[in-house]
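Review form for a predicted model. The reviewer records the input and the model, then writes brief findings.
Reviewer: anonymous (R2)
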Amino acid sequence: MRAAPLLCLYALSGSALAGEIILVSDGSQGSRVVQQLRTEAVGGVRTAAGYPRVMKSDEIPGLKPGKLVTVVGFCTDRKAAQRTVNGLKGKLSVYIRTVEGEWPGACPTSDPPPPTSPTEAELRRRVEQDPENENALYDYAQYLQMAGRLDEAEVQLDKLLKLNPEHAYGNQLQGVIRLLRAEPD
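Model under review:
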C-alpha cells in the first residue's frame, strides 16, 4: 500500500534515468566499419538489432540539438559501454556520453577476448568440454582473477557457485575479487 505514494512522488519529481550512449566520432559515421557493424561483429562487439543508427541529436536528452549523430548503442552502465569502446579501439573512433533516458535492449554485446596464452586456451577448452566441471570452472576463474579480468572471473564463479553454492575455494575467490574491487585505483 505504501508503494503507490512513492511511485507518484517519483513520477512527479521529473527525474529521468541516465544511461550511456555510444556515439561514432565525427568523420567516421559513413565508414565501412559502421556498415559492417550492422550485420556482423567487429572486434568482438555485436550491436543490438537496428544499430548503429543515425538519429537527430534533438531526440536524445543531453546532446546538443541540431546535429545528426550515429549511435552504436545505449547501455545502462558505464562498464558495458566502455567494453564496447575498448572492443572497437583501433577499428572505429567512438566515445561515450551520459544522457537521460532508457533504451532497453540497445547495449552492444562483447565476445570474450580470444585466449592470450596456451594456459588460458587449455582452461577454456576444459570448461567448454564440461561446463559443469567444478574444478575447471574454479581453475579458469582463478586464472582470470590473477590476470586482472575480474568481470570474466565473476562469470565463471557465478556458474560454479550456481552448481555448488558451498564450494569453499569458489567462495574464497569471490571474496578476494570483492576486496580487489573495493581497493582504490
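Findings: Strands lie at 18-24, 45-46, 53-56, 68-75, 94-100, 109-110.
Further findings: The CA atoms of residues 65 and 180 lie 41 Å apart.
Recommendation: see findings above.
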